[in-house]
Amino acid sequence: MGYAEVRFAHTAELALPTGGTQLLVNLDADALSSSPLRGPVRRTGGAAVHGPYTEPALIDPAQQRAVVWVAFRPAGAHPFLTAPVSAVRDELAGLDELWGTDGAVLRERLLEAMAVGGPRAGLRELEAALLARARRPLEPDPAVRLAAALLDRGTPVAEVADRLGWTARRLARRCTDQLGLAPKRYARLRRFQRLLGRVNAGPGAPDWAALAADCGYHDQAHLIHEFRALAGITPTAYAPRSPLERNHVPLDG
């Protein structure tokens, strides 16, 4: 959970898929939007849930001028949704659609709290709203969390199922329900995130062949193919906003 207030010089940027789910509240304007590279623009009011994306999307940096967000840990969004997390996969879903009246008034509640007590008061109000909406135990299913951790480390899907004593079908059902993604898709996105974490880890230009081997790709050609599919750009064109914001890539023009 966090709050940021900032201005950017660029007018568009790529948001890269992480496999995670976020709750976003735009305090600067009552609007949010996200545009996949293929498909229509998705627009909502100023409070929305950004489901687990499986492809890059174009976003407007102006919508990040003053924003409160919650980046849910794996399976962490599940208690706050009445439907499986997969229902918001590849979606920007308005909080008014998901929570009804509670979602429709959340942005105003945060603005009112921050006007009196500053950003910390706004974060406390958001925390209270989440606790009030919880429909399941707040602690994620430990088996699904273990599955996510194993997949994040590159453990093969079949081995994850064996470790849990589950069939592949049960693993797929539980991951889709609580993570929002089938295990193979989740593992693919997390491998991509491991790669991005390594790209800016050392001095000099990245050694893509070595990174391919270290991150679990068959070869450099496989890495390039996956990079283009998940980032919409080539590896050499990748220039994130900062090393700590590796999933935001400013675009020129």
UniProtKB/TrEMBL annotation:
The keyword Transcription applies. InterPro entries: AraC_XylS_family_regulators, DUF6597, HTH_AraC. Residues 141-241 form the HTH araC/xylS-type domain. Keywords: DNA-binding, Transcription, Transcription regulation. GO terms for molecular function: DNA-binding transcription factor activity; sequence-specific DNA binding. SMART domains: HTH_ARAC. The keyword DNA-binding applies. This is AraC family transcriptional regulator. It comes from Streptomyces cahuitamycinicus.
